[in-house]
Specification:
101 residues; mainly alpha; 5 helices; 50% helix
Length: 101
């Protein structure tokens, strides 16, 4: 994916696009950092929360190119992604207290 004009090319990379309704997207945008991190630490929601955060923050998804399912993500990227989101979400919310892992 690159910028619309391609001159100069500034936004090169891969992006995650999660199919959500406009209402679902609005809800996702209002979730606080602490709740996101709790979702990232729960087995039932960790992978989905991670993908939604990739979209919300327009994070380059090149590391996810070979990740086809949650099991591969857990094996190769979960720890790194959660650390990234924790740092970003704490930075965006100074009142956030990190959950115990």
């Amino acid at each position: 994916m690159a910028c619309d004009t391609c001159a100069p090319i500034r936004n090169i990379g891969f992006r995650v696009v999660v199919e959500m309704s406009e209402q679902e997207m609005k809800i996702a945008q209002t979730i606080d950092g602490g709740t996101w991190l709790k979702l990232l630490l729960e087995k039932s929601s960790d992978f989905a929360a991670n993908l939604i955060l990739y979209q919300l923050f327009d994070k380059n998804a090149i590391p996810l190119l070979q990740i086809k399912n949650r099991e591969l993500w857990v094996k190769y990227l979960r720890k790194e992604d959660i650390s990234f989101w924790e740092t970003l979400l704490i930075k965006n919310n100074s009142n956030y207290d990190s959950p115990n892992r």
